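Lab channel / #folding
Pinned by the channel admin:
"Please post every new chain as: sequence first, then the structure tokens as a reply. Keep commentary short and put observations after the output so the thread stays searchable."

First post following the new format, from NK:
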Amino acid sequence: MNRGINGELIFPDDKHKAVFLELLAEKARLYRMRLFTYCIMDNHYHLLLENTSGRMADFFRNLNTHYALYYRKKNGGKGYVFQSRYVSTLIQNDAYLKLAIIYVLQNPLRAGMVKNHHKFLWSSMNQYFEKQNPEWLDAQFVNDLFGSRLQLDEAVGRELGKKLPTIKTFFGPVLGEESFLAKALERYERRQEADAVKKRRRDDFGFEPVEKIIQEFEQSRGVRIDEIDIGNIQGKNLRGELLVNLRDATGLKYREIIEIPIFSNLHYLSLAHLYRNHCQRLKAKYTK
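Reply from TO:
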């Protein structure tokens, strides 16, 4: 899950929620995430997913960055949109996954936004037990977990105040039994071994958040990136400098950078050439 910085209402209306949902569908397909449940509230969102491609960090960074760019363009302001990188909870098995699904779908009820969970349009509640479902949402798996629409409805409608029985650990919350902690700890420790360094997430190597790099670039250049005119030489140079900053500071791949609007008219294969040219240009500039 993730929430707006300082509790800011980052999904204040249906338009904002619809844009986020479109981005969620796009990124789930792009990064091959197996998504079971979603709920988009006014100041935060919840997702239940399986990290099927091993690129969960890339998925969330891309999702949050693209929505943050939309939000700032739409609403103005500067700085971070989301409070943190994201908060993840490790889930032991299907039994605990059911508890998590119920908890996520109950969010609008607990917040008093609706009295009937089917009336809330921005969760996956109405996607289950339907003839057709979005291909990026594994509704069938949830159907099989609960068995029928009636059982799902009854589960979501009861015990609204019940909290998830998560266990706090130094590597994050775990939803499961004490015996599961040993396996989770073993997995965590394997990632800390020297021979596993190359397999770690890019986030673990100290890369900066994309939003931070863009914000610092805009402040230092005195221009918003969506206002840069790439039809002239000055604008193209600014775009090139931004590319170098993003590539070096965030660890984004070219396929990810090209999804940022200012680079969208370029083919990702041309970004490597553009990157090299501007690296040489900046090197020459600062070695004169």
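NK: The two ends are 48 Å apart (CA to CA).
TO: also worth noting, Residues 207-286 form one domain.
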